[in-house]
Amino acid sequence: MHSPQPNLEAHAGKDWPSALYRVLKAADVRQMSYVPDAGHSQLIRLFSADRDVTTNVLTTEEEGVAIAAGAWLGGQRSVLLMQSSGVGNCINMLSLSAIGRFPLLMLVTMRGEWAEFNPWQVPMSRATQPSLEAISLKVMRAETPEDLIETVEAAAALAYESDQQIAVLIGQRLIGKKKW
Amino acid sequence: MPDSSQLDRRAAVAALLGNRGDTLVVSGLGSPTYDLHATGDRDDNFYLWGAMGGAALIGLGLAQAQPGKRVLALTGDGEQLMGLGGIATIGVARPRNLDIVVIDNQHFGETGMQASHTGRGVDLTAIATACGFAATGTVRTIAEVERLAAQIAEPADGPRLFVIKVVAENPPRSLPSRDAVFIKNRFRAHLGFAAA
Asked: Which of chain B's residues have a Cβ under 8 Å away from the Cβ of A78?
């Protein structure tokens, strides 16, 4: 079993996905849904191996916004993982989180902003933060592993304890260049 | 026309939910929300006024959080068509306590009764079957709805999707609260979760 308490000093840095997993477990996250991103692959593996967390693979990211609302209705906390291109798919469904004041924590790996090979990632990358803010989400951003762990801890508290709708953007510089 | 139905949607929903017991119900925007409210306002109803395509998936999150309770997503053909991918997601998640019931008038009733896909050959039950649902079916009469109500009260091996074909008309609206925070907190309080 994994320790319920994150050990930030020992586990941020290169193995930030494991530290992130421990932070989310400590926040009592019981459901995780995702459209895959390479930057999230280790976190997806960790959650998928965890029998205490229900994991849903999605066909489109907005489904996870609805699942998170349903989970909260039923008394569970949910986290939603996606890459920046998926944010555009979510916009109307985020009305549900906003108008119902449903806790929402989205972890968004950024593409199209740092050493990006694929120009098709750029337009949605530029639109990610403005479109999230336009539908009234609070956007937080992390560029280093240490900052990411602290940011997600704070975001989880804001979401689940203060009924806020939060997207944490994980900078592409942090994730590293995709190998082609 | 094989898909035609003379069934009144309010009578169908009343027959479906008349003995629902402690089943938790999420309703899709438009007529299904009015239909659910018309059967009686209850703390264990969650009414949508937006979030089109999300009803069944809210049902999924709820069913996963409350595995000991039955969850029913009551929605319309237009709403479920917008959430077609969600049928695949629910098929893979395979909850044993989630039923989707589509009140299918084959039209977008809220916006002027434009014809939808389901009157033109698109079969939501066939899609659900292809996505691995445990049971599916289409009903067209009150007697069949009553049998369906008895069927969904029984345990299932996985998610089920049923279509109730109804006549395309808009009965007088029966309007629940549009305050989603109030409906959310009332629903959660019913399950024992205090508002923060």
From this structure: 61
